[in-house]
Known about the structure:
heterodimer, A: 4 domains, six-stranded antiparallel sheet
Amino acid sequence: MIPEIGHFALIMALALALLQGVLPILGAALGNATLMSLARPVARGQFVFVAIAFACLVQGFLGNDFSVLYVAQHSNSQLPTLFRVAAVWGGHEGSLLLWTFILTIWTLAVAQFSKQLPEEMVARVIGVMGLISVGFLLFMLFTSNPFERLIPAAADGRDLTPMLQDPGLVIHPPMLYMGYVGTSVAFAFAIAALLGGKLDATWARWSRPWTTVAWVFLTLGIGLGSWWAYYELGWGGWWFWDPVENASFMPWLIITALIHSLAVTEKRGAFKNWTVFLAIVGFSLSLLGTFLVRSGVLTSVHAFAVDPARGVFILAFLGVVIGSSFVLFAWRAPKVGLGGGFDLVSRESLLLVNNVLLAVAAAAVFLGTLYPLFMDALGMGKFSVGPPYFDAVFAPIMAIAVFLMGAGPFARWKQASVAEMAKPLGAWLAASLALAVLVTFAFDHWTAPIIGGVTLGFWSLLSGLAYLFMRVRESAAAGTWAKLRTTSRSTYGMLLAHAGIGVFILGVTLVKGYETSSEVLMHLDETATVGGYTFRYLRSENVTGPNYRGVRVALEVTKDGANVTALYPEKRVYNVQTMNMTESAIDTGLFRDLYVALGEASVKDEWVVRIQIKPMVDWIWYGCLLMAFGGVLAVTDRRYRLTAQRRQPTAATELAASQPESCRG
Amino acid sequence: MVHNKLFFAFLFMLWLPLAHGGEAVPTTDDVALEKRVMAVSGELRCLVCQNQTIADSHAELAIDLRNQVREKLQQGMSEKEIVDFMVTRYGDFVLYRPLVKSTTWLLWFGPFVLLALALGFLVFNLRRRRAAMLREESSMSAAEHAQVASLLSETDKGVQS
Lengths: 665, 161
């Protein structure tokens, strides 16, 4: 009965989504206040029904209802409760329902936090999001129904793929989808601006916080995915330029460009068309990514549904969304008004160069991901594109961007001078290089790329510090603390996010440059020494989990005789899917990880053990956290909180709110 | 390389009398050969895995191919000959790094060409905007200039008060 309720709820949601998608936009076009005012309540209604459907599916998993096909395919009575909930989005149909659910949550948020926006804009934004909902609901109801019955019911389920039975699975997809779906808000704002014919700095000011929040979630989602792959897949890698990873990374690059482009549009009213274009491309890539893995075109660790019927629907949906938005763009993009003028060397132009670099980087990733497909389709040969290509092409482009990232804040709006910027920055650049040389001396070898990478990492950190020093020096306030407080949160957010990039680059460069690995055949009581650490095979024991059996090896780790830790890598066989799974054992440290995984065993108490020492690897994810935190700081800036408080503008608050940020702000 | 030093440390320690059990033996005896095997394997894709080289993978096919690479190196084939052999057998797909040939020029050079074009377009566009702004400014009449001046001085007075 409950699955039928869920199914019905989806149909109701579709009806409401259709109303939500059509009526408010019609109302905005006709100036009909009644139709426009339907947007918020209908959006809330759609949320309720999608939530009901989602709850029904969760109940199907919790209640072990194996008469539902999707539950039977992805769950099992022995599956621990936490993973049963996570299994809701472990497969194609359920993950689509999650996507739709999150879309209704974002729509609810827009409906709730948009009191200061004009009605036509809200109506259009919610309308566009309603139309996207329609697409996903149709896709589900026609090709991918999570509530399809299995008759007769299965006695027990096929279990969740063992690789996905992990706490990381609980959080990675929801986080990532919050990011993906968030790009639809930026997209909706862009379409709303095009529909309304009003594309100005105020529109950019409204779009910015929404875009930043989506970016934060996307950053966290991708970081989590990388971290999860690192400890779950068992071979110590954390980024493979896998097609699905690329599918999430391309929107991230474009949305990063969009955040910076919105800054120019908001502050100077310039390059509005480019900003709108980026918003459309960002969401298009997001959709492309969501669907790339479900079309059967690519095989990867992530591959979901492999079904041509779904592929056709996806292609049609993508065509409609991307096609219509570009047509709208070509038709309505404003052709008059240049916005504020600025010099060839200025903060605006540097931000635009940043955009160009990020967009070209995204294009390179796009090219590398889809090239084999195109070539194969054209019959021009089957070949593969992997990490060597992406590393060789992506790194140099981003290196330029990161260098400019450090210099950018020092450029004035409208007009900047390279000589003036080079004076303070030259010294900091030299300092970064010196630090890089010092750090690499701590290891036993170096290469030019390593020095380059470490220099860029330190440059990102030091240039941020230099900027703070400059702000303190130039502030009119009395006392260092007061001077620091005059700097806005959004500036701190920027500095923190850029510092996060520096931390990230340091982690990546040092781990790729200096990780060591060793494969040894170990017997009871034997030791192996790698990177100064001694690993002793203490014992092995059989373990039984809720839905698996396995062997756990206990390794004692010492360094120079002092005890460091004990590691317990495992080899498991899951009861239902009888897949061999390697559970790696990791000792996490601030400056290094010890990573141990078991290979194959031929004889009892004899194991091939792969030991890896990974210096600075966790800085990769610390960097992601810093970036996300920087974004959060930027979104909680005073200007966004003030507008919410301002119900009745008085002269005083008007003046306070309109205080211009300092020229370099 | 660190690898080298550690391995010789193993070998050395094997000869030391140890109170407990002995040193675990690395899965290979000849470290120089193994380095070459790994170098070649790093260029070859594991055909049954999701995006791994045969150097990284533990799949049966990967281990099998690594053994073949080792045998061929021991027989005296060069690294390039081995890679060519694999390509003949499995096609271009087995190369982890795509070759630079006419069908992949777009792949390898495309991004950089695009970057140059985009930066060029940006500079061109910025110069054109600048020229258009200057034209607009110079086309203002003397009366409009006077109006701007008086407005600016009013604002200054307002801020100072």
